[in-house]
Write a structure and sequence with these properties.
Oligomer: single chain
Largest sheet: none
Radius of gyration: 28 Å
Strand content: under 5%
Shape: elongated
Length: 470
């Protein structure tokens, strides 16, 4: 600030030394988080530079990038993006692709595209940035490792989990070698990788890695630390998804005990564990213990949107307990809430409708099931056409059509649903793989009604081969 004042007094407001001092001061303000001072100062300098130096002068491009960064830090992302685009284009043309300033601008622009939801462009730029750093800096350079991790995380956000995992494995392996297995950053990266293994239903890798993360957190952070408790929940969810309920139930019981002591019963995190334990009790046929827990968590979910998943779980428990009246009333409430709280074409609505329909299809006379499944299938067809949930929804819709005696539609939906589920079987959590024999059973029923004995025999043989998935 003193330099700017001296330059202004000696040379005047528009002298190059004064402007350079302002640019440097603005960048410093931005680095320390004082955006209220940084942004107007950088805007002033940029306006002067554009007139005096031109848009493509290196000093102008540097200020453009700094102002974009200041806008981004101040959450003015719409203002930041065009500046990052201008800075990258200008520096690439003026300085070349491999100039450090150009590479930095590329990283800023990639992050801006990611924030703006322009995923395809973001992925392309993160890939380009990694290629450049590998070529210019080498595989072992710290900035190359940063780029590997960044691209892995972007692949995750883009839903490209299979492409993300090798990169996340590379980061974990390198950091473990450099920092040691007990370093906090290694633990963090291990948790991220485990979550992606779980996403792809690779529980043989996910569960041991989550157990290592949990062991480290219990030892280093303490048994009641929030991150420890969170990993206990994640590990229990992994066991549940892998149909290892003999492991998930006691783990959730212990997690709930610790959470009540450290967070209190009413805390939203505690209530999520209450719900998870309720789901596990339900799935081991301990309905008398499951229902009170799920009802408690459902009441909390009415005030905590992140627990919206609890309602359909309670609904299924009511159905399994033979409580048709309670189930029907709850289903109506859940459907009303799902439509009120989600956009009409959103994936969230499709998943909610599917979760509710998994229960209501078991309720005789619940008329809304067919329309709800048709809506869910239509959304999933657009947004997740190759995901196993889409084929599960198709299968359930085929079952609903079978109930309505629409044999032509039922046959097509069940056959497509079965083929898709079979293809995606390895990506399905084992807890959900019963959808495949369920679909085969409905096809047996369909062909029995149509009096087509050859097809009955064919699908009965298929069903017999899938018994272990039930």
């Amino acid at each position: 600030m003193e330099y700017v004042r001296l330059a202004r007094d000696k040379y005047g407001e528009q002298h190059p030394d004064t402007l350079r001092g302002k640019a440097s001061l603005g960048a410093t303000y931005a680095q320390i988080g004082n955006h209220a001072k940084a942004i107007p100062l950088l805007e002033e300098v940029l306006a002067d530079y554009r007139v005096r130096l031109g848009n493509d002068h290196p000093d102008t491009l540097s200020v453009i990038g700094n102002l974009g960064a200041a806008y981004r830090a101040a959450n003015r992302h719409e203002d930041a993006l065009p500046l990052f685009e201008e800075a990258y284009t200008g520096q690439r043309e003026k300085l070349g692709e491999d100039n450090p300033n150009t590479i930095n601008s590329l990283s800023n622009l990639a992050a801006a595209y990611l924030t703006a939801g322009r995923m395809e462009e973001a992925v392309q730029m993160f890939e380009q940035g990694l290629d450049q750093r590998r070529r210019l800096l080498g595989e072992k350079h710290p900035m190359t490792l940063v780029s590997v991790g960044n691209l892995g995380n972007v692949y995750v956000r883009a839903g490209k989990i299979e492409q993300a995992i090798p990169l996340l494995e590379e980061v974990l392996e390198t950091l473990t070698r450099q920092l040691g297995a007990k370093h906090p950053e290694v633990n963090k990266r291990a948790a991220i990788l485990a979550a992606q293994y779980r996403e792809l239903a690779q529980f043989d890798k996910a569960i041991p890695l989550m157990q290592k993360v949990l062991d480290w957190r219990e030892q280093e952070l303490g048994a009641e630390h929030l991150e420890t408790l969170s990993m206990m929940n994640s590990l229990a969810a992994g066991y549940w998804s892998n149909r290892q309920l003999d492991q998930s139930v006691p783990l959730l019981q212990e997690a709930l005990k610790r959470m009540e002591e450290s967070l209190g019963r009413d805390d939203a995190t505690t209530q999520a564990t209450v719900a998870n334990l309720g789901v596990n009790y339900r799935d081991v046929a301990r309905l008398d213990e499951a229902l009170p827990l799920l009802k408690e968590a459902y009441e909390t979910s009415l005030k905590v949107p992140t627990l919206a998943w609890v309602g359909p779980q309670l609904l299924l428990a009511h159905v399994q307990a033979g409580q048709k009246a309670e189930a029907s009333e709850l289903a109506k409430q859940l459907l009303e809430a799902a439509r009120a709280n989600n956009d009409p074409q959103s994936l969230a609505l499709a998943n909610q409708l599917l979760a509710i329909s998994r229960a209501t299809i078991l309720i005789d006379g619940f008329e809304a099931t067919l329309a709800n499944l048709e809506e869910s299938v239509a959304i999933l067809q657009t947004q997740r056409p190759n995901d196993w949930t889409h084929f599960d929804a198709m299968s359930l819709l085929g079952q609903a059509k079978l109930k309505e005696q629409d044999m032509v539609a039922a046959e097509s939906l069940l056959a497509q649903g079965f083929a898709g589920l079979q293809e995606q079987l390895s990506r399905m959590p084992p807890i959900r793989r019963s959808a495949l024999p369920r679909t085969a059973r409905r096809l047996v029923e369909l062909y029995q009604r149509l009096e087509r004995p050859e097809q009955v025999a064919k699908w009965q043989a298929v069903l017999d081969g899938l018994r272990e998935l039930e």
